[in-house]
Amino acid sequence: TEGDYRGAVRLVIQFREAGLKPEIYSYLVAMTAVVKELNEFAKALRKLKTYARAGLITEFDREDVDLAENYQSELLADGALLSKWVIQDSTPSSLHGVIHERLLAMYICAGRGIEAEKQLWEMKLVGKEADGGLYDIVLAICASQKESAATARLMMRMEVASSPQKKKSLSWLLRGYIKGGHFNEAAETVMKMLELGFSPEYLDRVAVLQGLRKKIQHHGNLDTYMKL
């Protein structure tokens, strides 16, 4: 049926596991279906979390979270399996960039920072450069998960970036830290932006100050707050 992305993915996998050999195009379509299903799933989860915060439904319990994570992991495993088969089936190397692009989209939709970062470099290795905006999205995901090494690697692009691009990347970095609740790092990013002559968005500054205020109430450390 229309929109049955998971069904399309499973169909291609079943064909392959039954000893048939789907066309390369079928694998790529199935990988796109994985991306779409992950995206729809992420949107549904965000909507449910919004309802939960508003008190319209009960909060997610551990079992709900585990079910969601397992479903997401199964989709990612399907996508990785499809990509492996594409490469195995004597794919022309010109398609390798497309495969890594699909994998990148999958990991971004699933919020998997480290895996997404790996695909950025894999794309580069096969001569396909990802859009700069995708680097920023992955940067924000890694920052939200406090993946310091990955964040540092992604920030190296800033050394040769134009001034507007630097501000854009730092803004994504800042929002990643805010989303992950890493307010000391967020505050450091605000200060770095100010040092470079960039003005962070008002709502971002407010979010950082509010986050730091809560930390002070719990831990009593005023240093970072006073610097801002």
UniProtKB/TrEMBL annotation:
PPR repeats lie at residues 166-200. PROSITE patterns: PPR. Keywords: Repeat. InterPro entries: PPR_rpt (IPR002885), TPR-like_helical_dom_sf (IPR011990). This is Pentatricopeptide repeat-containing protein chloroplastic-like. Gene3D superfamilies: Tetratricopeptide repeat domain.
